[in-house]
Amino acid sequence: MTDTSPARSKSPLDNSEFWSGAVWLALGAFVTWSGVKLGIGRINDPGSGFMLFYVGILMCVFSVTIMIAAISEGSAGFGALWAGANWRKPLTIMICLAVFAVALEPLGFLLSTIPLLLVLLRAIDPVRWTLTIPIGVLAPLFVWWVLKKALLIQLPSGILEIG
Amino acid sequence: MDTLVNVMQGLGVALQPINLLYCFIGVFIGTLVGVLPGIGPISAMSLLLPVTLSGTPESGIIMMAGIYYGSMYGGSTTSILVNIPGEAASVVTCIDGHQMAKKGRAGPALGISALGSFIAGTFSLVALMLVAPSLANVAIAFGPAEYASLMVLGLVVLTFLTQGSMAKALLMACVGIVLGLIGLDSITAMPRLTFGKLELIDGIGLVPVVMGLFGLAEVLFNTEQAIKRDIIDAKITQLLPNKEDWKASAGPIGRGTVLGFLLGVLPGGGAVVASFASYALEKRLSKTPERFGHGAIEGVAGPEAANNAAAGGAFIPLMTLGIPPNVVMALLLGAFVIHGLQPGPLMITQNPTLFWGIIASMYIGNVMLLVLNLPLIGMWVQLLKLPYNILFPLIILFTIIGVYCSSNNVFDVYVMVGFGIAGYLMRKFGYEPAPLVLAFVLGPLLENNLRKALILSQGDMMTFVQRPISAVCLAVALLLLLGPLLPSFRKKRELVALDEGA
Questions:
Q1: From the CA of A162, how many Å to the nearest CA of chain B?
Q2: Which of A42, A48, A140 sits opposite B185 (nearest CB)?
Q3: Nearest Cα to Cα of residue B58 among B347, B330, B336
Q4: pLDDT at B500
Q5: Chain B: nearest CA to A127, how far in angstroms?
Q6: Does the distance separating the beta carbons of B175 and A86 come in below 8 Å?
Q7: Chain segment B435-473, per-residue pLDDT in tens
Q8: Residues 6+ apart with CB under 8 A from A55
Q9: Burial of B42 (0-12, 13-18, 19+ CB in 10 A)
Q10: Are B112 and B375 in contact (CB under 8 A)?
Q11: Confidence at residue B104, expressed as pLDDT on a 0 to 100 scale
Q12: Beta partners for B162?
């Protein structure tokens, strides 16, 4: 669990709890609205939106509770959540995965997975190149062979039809 | 007599070579993920959920169950030797287990942990065999109102036991329900929250959600902090505890087993709560409580027995009522559903070979675990030295492949990446993913039963309080919801509230 005890802020501007509550409040409002749009129905014949409507209301109630607590008791600022943590590593992985997700279909499994693994092996905690290259190339190739050739699972081959 | 016949029938299934192989793979992977800090049974089970598609339902479920109880064994090795819990249920084992190892008693600590786990695991299986069929007979009488109330209770108990703010845990449960409702309405066939995307018509898959929230998010969370490992390097000798060790441990193992089993059966409870409760109980009962925290063998024996007994007990609500009491069991329910099976009161009578086969395999699995965890302890110690900078990229690769293979759909990979990032941010902001996943699985069942109950009672809400079982469930849920408003009750909750995530 994240220790949010240091640097507690009551100001709504740099208050992580307040803003996370606000995001959930917006989502709760959207769910409630979706429930209404789908039709709540009657109590003896609940409609498709019945559950969504009431769960959306509950989400709003809990979000507001979190926001009120954040203002009255204070909470850690955004910076404090990543204090002492190396935030660059998860951020790098997230960017790599986002790029991978976009590239997977057009480039295919092999051409997107090999670069992903090479980058991850160097980005998380650099592995020496003599290990990075064999692991980064052979692991996806091995998996591709097992899935495509042994288990006959269709993998995306991309516009270049590689893999 | 019937039970004995059923057990023999179950053994016939469990002893088939293919099922023995799956059982071994399950307990081996379970021990592996238990040993490796940062990866828990939830991540491993979600990773292997697609693999279960390739075999028979028995084989797949035997393997998944093996991962769960196997991780309970493996987790203690890391706790004792490295002082890092291999998985959440072994947190408490670190306290006295590592102290014993530092004093040169790693062998007896590992030995009592494995033997205590074996005794507790075996007891919980016998209890499961005796209790489950009787409870299933009672559960046949359950109607939609009882089921809806039981699910509400399960969700409330889990949110009550989740670390941190209860409002956040309840919010997570609501988000899980909403995510579970995406797709076609099972009664009116109307698409809900699909945003015109064909991929969402069948809803979001359990595999990408769990792999994202637990597998990927766990890696993201672990990479931002340096994992320090203080491995006990001395040669581990004399694994079998001596006479004094047994004398000191017999009581804690017995009490831990009973307590763990009972807590495992309760909805929302589980191995983590059981291990902490057992530690607290042993410390309170001890004539020399000051030894706890400094290498008391009772502090290892009790909690290790409790978490294994709880792992067995947790199968009861799933097998007899079809309601998963925790996230691990929710994943197991997912495995049943993938194979077109619905666990519940009718499963034992309609599919006895499956039920008794799973039970019998668990007994065999416990024996396998004893062999894996005592004579092969050196192998697991070596594994603890595996560098994380190689392990984490490979885990990411396997999550991607696991998700893709579960549906042959790239969209699920996007969903997994999205939930991975969301899961990481949720942890940073103090939102636990466990209630979300349980609610995600229970949400559609809850909605279905709630709507059916209302239709059957012609809109009379009193149906939920006029039926005794439903009324009791709702009363307990209400007590747990309102309880934290009282300062003394809140303190108690903070003591038992735990991180179930790992």
A1: 17
A2: A48
A3: B336
A4: 44
A5: 7
A6: no
A7: 898 889 888 889 999 999 999 998 888 999 998 889 998
A8: A31, A35, B174, B177, B178, B181
A9: buried
A10: no
A11: 83
A12: B498
Nearest to B224 among A90, A127, A135 (CB): A90
Min CA distance, B319 vs chain A (Å)?
Answer: 27
B132, HSE (Cβ side, Cα atoms, 13 Å)? 32
How far apart CA B68 and CA B84 sit, in angstroms, is 19
Using the CB atoms, write b or e for A130-144: b if 16+ within 10 Å: eebeebbeebbeebb
**How far is Cα B77 from Cα A22, in angstroms, rounded to an integer?**
43
- pLDDT value for B499: 45
Q: Cβ A66–B459 below 8 Å, yes or no?
A: no
Residue B482 has pLDDT above 70, yes or no: yes
Cα B257 from Cα B117, distance rounded (Å): 9
Q: Please state, rounded to an integer, the average pLDDT across all residues of chain B.
A: 83
DSSP 8-state code for residue A2? -
The whole-angstrom separation of Cα B68 and Cα B111 is 20
Chain A partners of B458 at a C-beta cutoff of 8 Å?
44
The reported pLDDT for the residue numbered B182 is: 95
The C-alpha atoms of residue B159 and residue B165 are separated, in whole angstroms, by 9
Nearest 5 degrees, angle CA B441-CA B443-CA B449?
115
pLDDT at residue A3 tops 60: no
The DSSP-derived string for B7-66 is HHHHHHHHTSHHHHHHHHHHHHHHHHHHHSTT--HHHHHHHHGGGGGGS-HHHHHHHHHH
Q: Are B420 and B217 in contact (CB under 8 A)?
A: yes
Number of A/B CB contacts below 8 angstroms equals: 169
Paired tokens of B156: 């409330």
Q: How far apart are CA B360 and CA B442, in angstroms?
A: 28
Q: How far is A13 from chain B (nearest CA, A)?
A: 16
Q: ipTM of this predicted complex?
A: 0.88
Residue A136: partners with Cβ closer than 8 Å, 6 or more residues away? A114, A117, A118, A121, B393
pLDDT for res B501: 40
Number of Cβ within a 10 Å radius of residue B425: 17
Whole-number percent of chain A with pLDDT over 90: 44
Helical pair B327-338 and B434-456, crossing angle rounded to 10 deg: 60
DSSP letter, residue B498: B
**Distance (Å, whole) CA A47 – CA A70:** 36
Select from A90, A129, A8, A110 the least CA-distant residue to B401. Answer: A110
At position B429, the amino acid (one-letter code) is F
Q: How many CB atoms lie within 10 A of CB A160?
A: 11
Residue to mutate among B182, B410, B428, with most A CBs inside 10 A, is B428
Give the distance from residue B174's alpha carbon to the nearest chain A alpha carbon, in angstroms.
6
CB of B402 closer than 8 Å to CB of B212:
no
- Take residue B95 and report the two structure tokens written for it: 């306290």
Residues of B in contact with A113 (CB under 8 A): 397, 400
HSE of B219, CA atoms in CB hemisphere, 13 A: 30
Q: Determine if the pTM surpasses 0.90.
A: no
**Structure tokens of B18?**
């293919």
**Integer-rounded Cα radius of gyration of chain B:** 22
> Does B431 sit within 8 Å of A87, measured CB to CB?
no
- A66: nearest CB among B168, B226, B459: B168
